[in-house]
Amino acid sequence: MENKKVTAPGLAGMKSCGEKISVLTAYDYPMGRIVDDAGIDIALVGDSVGRVVLGYDSELKVTMEDMISHSAAVSRGVRRALLVCDMPFLSYQISEDDAVRNAGRLVQEGNAEVVKLEGGEYVANTIHRIVSAGIPVIGHLGLTPQSVHQLGGFRKVGKDPEGADKIKKDALILQDAGASGIVLEAIPAALAKEVTDSLSIPTIGIGSGPDCDGQVIVTHDLLGLFDKFKPSFVKQYADVWQVMLKAFENYSRDVKDGAFPERK
Ligand code: KIV
């Protein structure tokens, strides 16, 4: 791992050198620091914050204020990693002017370096406008949680030939619109490889097989810190829920027994 600051323009260079891009979500200062210290390339302030931190049942409830506050907190812990912040539901779908203004707020108030937004062809002009304002954008295709009701649930996308063609076409459109990278969520591995090979900008996969240019996992899934469900593709690297539970139980017992604090 090099100690060089990761930048949006540098992402394409990482792809062309064959350097895989590691991405984890982060939602607060300690997560930002630990992600950065671990040499993760991108700290993504995902709208998954709604589910895994705020306890909402959906990403759709997350607001601009939520994203600004969490992005600013993460930014205080991050130095080398690129700070990417999700644009929440309805912050970019209503008008292009609104989208530029809200992307600007994530940069100005949340210290984001890149914004991420979901969708294909219909957000191409929006991406172009945001990029023209000097703000790098990462796109997001496949399973796009902000369209969960339209997709009919959280399921793999692009399994049928029409769906696969649309994703291939959309990826090229997003690249032409100026995107610096594209998250590919829950699409078949072979399709993810085809899309990845067709682009000069990197793809970041989540549940889309090993051939993307990078991988992202929701940190709380990796840590075993989310209790509601675990996506099948997730590799859990630790059981932090149990570590915390044990520590809290031990503390509670010590307080009740008078073992904490000690007299000395
Ligand atoms: O919100 C999020 O965490 C995301 C990742 C799952 C890519 O968008």
Tell me the distance between the termini. 45 Å
Sequence of strands across the biggest β-sheet: 1-2-3-4-5-6-7-8
Total number of distinct structural domains: 1
Q: CATH topology, what is it called? A: TIM Barrel
Helix content: 40-55%
Q: Would you identify the regions where 5 or more consecutive residues have pLDDT less than 50?
A: none
Please tell me the overall pLDDT. Answer: 97
Structure description:
Helices cover 41% and strands 14% of the residues. By secondary structure, the protein is an alpha/beta fold. The protein has one domain: Alpha-Beta Barrel (TIM Barrel). The longest helix has 18 residues, at 240-257. The chain binds 3-methyl-2-oxobutanoic acid. 3-methyl-2-oxobutanoic acid binds next to strand 6.
How is the topology of this model organized?
Blueprint: H1 10-17, E1 21-25, H2 29-37, E2 42-45, H3 49-52, H4 64-75, E3 82-86, H5 96-108, E4 114-116, H6 124-132, E5 137-142, H7 148-151, H8 161-177, E6 181-185, H9 189-198, E7 203-206, E8 214-217, H10 219-222, H11 240-257
Parallel strand pairs: 1-2, 1-8, 2-3, 3-4, 4-5, 5-6, 6-7, 7-8
Helix pairs in contact: 2-4, 5-6, 6-8, 8-9
Bound molecules: 3-methyl-2-oxobutanoic acid.
